[in-house]
DUF479 domain-containing protein (Mucilaginibacter terrigena), 225 residues
Amino acid sequence: MNFLSHYYFDKHTTDCYFTLGTVLPDLLKNADKTIVLHPEKLAHANPNVNSIIQGWNKHLLVDKYFHSAEFFLTHSHNLKKLLAPVIVESPVKPFFLGHIAIELILDNLLITTNEISVSDFYDHLDSCDEAVIREFLRFAGMETPDVFFKFYAEFKRSRYLNTYINIEQITYALKRICMRVWRNPFTPQQEVEMTDLLLNYRLGLIASFMSIYNEIAEKFKSTEE
């Protein structure tokens, strides 16, 4: 799942460090794909650092439940088949595009149906003390945290996730993700056709997309009982 989908499950929390933890694995991956941390079983004397670790573990579980759910398997496969003829001669693999596309569409639907507030999400991140984040990263074994903080400052400043309200920006986000691996992943015409396809697919999901969030929430509820 993408940033806002992870945020959805704990949108009512008042602990900004837990919120940060729920999206931090993806933030680190975006900052530098070579960063690999495994703080899952660590415990720290600072409760705020521990909140980040707890949020991190929640992120891993949400992704585990999501990627094994029939909803994800079905829709990522459907999008792969639909996108394949659109991106002929592109270096991007259709299965990769289908995977990322369904996650970005879900974030768009959360915003456009008012299930979450993007401003509230960023307010949580802004409330976190950088010293606590640095201590978490150091504790988790990251030797060069400035690589992350350079990205993180721009991520907060740009408020980029607000653009997900526009379906055209979903195509742009897909292109940006693909450009980490391929320099020129799509032609302008392919981008136009992808936008039309994603818009139509999104329309077909509006009535039922919350089922995956309800399913995952039930899994967490059953483990707590």
About this structure: The chain has one domain: 3-224. The two ends are 25 Å apart (CA to CA).
